[in-house]
Amino acid sequence: MSDIDQGAPPTPSKVGNGDSTPPGVRVLAQFIRDLSFENPRAPDSLNLGASPPQMDIGVEMNARNRPEDGYFEVDLKLTATAQRDGSPVFHCELVYGGLFQITSVADSDMEMVLMTECPRFLFPFARHIIAEMSSQGGFPPFMLDPIDFTGIYMQQRSQVQGPVEGTA
Asked: Considering the domain boundaries, does residue 106 fall inside one?
């Protein structure tokens, strides 16, 4: 039995805008915005006994505010390209989106929430779609490794703003 009182209301936290409700991210909808799978050399590319292909993975995140309803759209774009001996094996591209309601987050933290937490909610579903797509293309399911969205965000921020003072 748990020692946690399930009936106790959560302790509110104060954020920069004076709101006393706890910060929250709610997924209202998820959807495929764009989906593509190319297998240009089929059926020759399906030679599964050949050496494993070299994979190139791309990750992009985009977000926009919807002023008409106060929600946020976040897109997670994943690309996977496989090549063997310099020849294309397959290329898949997925833009997977979500509609989010974000409450009680300070304006100064909003970008980080949109570019790290929201993609983290979308990733497991996008990963499944990529695996299923490669499998339906005749290949073993391609399972993307987990992605460090915070690390990607921090790297992009440092490229735009330059290194943070006091770091090398």
From this structure: yes
